[in-house]
Amino acid sequence: MVKDKHCLLRAMMILPVVGALNVGHAASDSEKKVVDDISQDLLKVVALLDQTGGAKSGILKAPAAQAPSSNIKQVAFRATEPRNTINLKELEGLDLSAFSTKPKAEPQPSKSKAVSTKKTASTDISKRVYHQVMSTPPPRKRRYRPCYQYGYQELQNRSRRYQQSITEASRLHGVNENLIKSVITAESCFKVRARSHKGARGLMQLMPATARRFGVRNSYNSHQNIRAGARYLRWLLDRYQGNVRFALAGYNAGEGKVDRYGGIPPYKETREYVRRVMGVYRTLHNKYEHSFNDTRHGTTKTREDYRRIWLQQQRLKQNNRPLSERRCLKAVPRHLKSLTNLKRSGRGGRIWRRYYSLQAHENLSHVMNKTGVHINTIKRMNHLTSQSKLGAGHKLLVWECRA
User: Fold this and answer.
1) Which position among 177, 187, 255, 269 bears the catalytic label?
2) Is 187 a catalytic residue?
């Protein structure tokens, strides 16, 4: 629908164009009749558009003064134009009711009724969507769960991809499958491309030196990584006479720290690591759907729980105390007793050290393979550099304990 009256004036321009066709020759009666018919039809169109456009009186008014001058020049008529053309000024004040009848005005609803209908519509819409939108609670933010808090089924689903490698490593080195899965869960959460800020890589987070020590070429290869990690666990279990907690502490902090403190080192990270791995191990061993590391379950504590907590606190206090002479003598690994010599030194003889005597044609690599102490640890304990010269009979410190 055209609501601008300037558009009506442009429609009226067709009449001068039709009249201009007759300029220069005498118009016949048939042509005059056609022009008159077109004029009548255009006036009817103007009347209909005037009704829909908004002139309440039905009288066409002259255009406003702000009409562009270009349009006025185009519709200006000369006195020489034929009589069958219509001048726009003649249409001013023309009553168009003779050409068309006004439609009956529909009764407009009152404001109160309109408001009520709007309220009804909005009420109907709210009722229709209330059950879908208003009755459903907003979605909860999913609580992040660390990997060591997974249940039995979730851990099994995670480890299914590497089950064959875990089974082969377990049979080859005699390490429990659940223990291998527990270490992988705490170390990398079964992410084969995992890498720590310290440089540990792969599923079992092997350091580059440890990987070379156990013949790993690619730490991101799951099969090689799991086999080397199981072999390292087997070596730690043999070193600490089957003590799983000491082996896990050595896996995390290094066997040198465990030997120095005669047990789990008093480091928060190492103690938390051992607790998490043992919790995952219990979850897998007992096939519990919830993890032993998940604090959301079992909030009601019994007398046995408080007793267990008290015993753990006593063990922590005992481990933080300086080691006695007797514990220092027992803390030495079994394989070092026949390879090294014991020496007591320090103020009041509170430091117990083990020294290895170099044989002919031996270097630090031979010492590492025999004692199990890494080359870097030997260099640090003996203050060696790359220019240090070693010969037969030279004594190297490989273990110490402070009582």
Assistant:
1) 187
2) yes
